Amino acid sequence: MDRSAWRDRLVAAGVSEELAASLALFLELLGRWGEACDLTGELDPESLLRDHVLESLIGAPWLVPGGLLDVGSGAGFPAIPLLLARGDVRGLLLEPRSRRWAFLKEAVRELGLAAEVRRGRLEDGSFSGVENVSVRALAREVWEGKARQLLKPGGRFLWWAGPRACLTPPEGLEDVVTCPLPNPERGWLVVWGRCFT
What we know:
Order of helices and strands: HHHEHEHEEHHEEE
CATH topology: Rossmann fold
Strand content: 25-35%
Number of domains: 1
Strand order of the largest sheet: 3-2-1-4-5-7-6
CATH class: Alpha Beta
Structural class: alpha/beta
Radius of gyration: 16 Å
Number of strands: 7
Distance between the termini: 49 Å
CATH architecture: 3-Layer(aba) Sandwich
CATH superfamily: Vaccinia Virus protein VP39
Helix content: 25-40%
Largest sheet: 7 strands, mixed
Shape: globular
């Protein structure tokens, strides 16, 4: 699908013209790279739009200004839609797989995003004190023990959780909101905040 067709679909889904233009460029880039690198598997345009783009964007209002650590960035969801929607947030995208890391570097460059892409895993680094953390399609046991230390006081932890996931906040975090995803069969967006104490 070309950029103008993506833009039209995004606008029809309620996305602003300006954001739709940027997201359409990202989706066009994803299409070019996706064929060579299998970034998203075989997805029809409707599923890609609903289950990846719109699902990512529901987190945008819950971010606080500052940094965003996106753990396991994969094909750029949710980080790239979030960064395109929120100009007051800069990103650190963490991805261990080399082809996806290369794609993310190119996407950040082409889209002119305020973001850095690092090749690695959460458990390999010492990450702490960011305003926002986003996690999608990553097992809870990978990040649960580090959730509190990752965030600054007042920070937000956004987790795209599966339909049967335990939604209890990790120690040191408190509930902010839980929202159903655009496709309710896929689960929830859970937003937790770090306590100030």
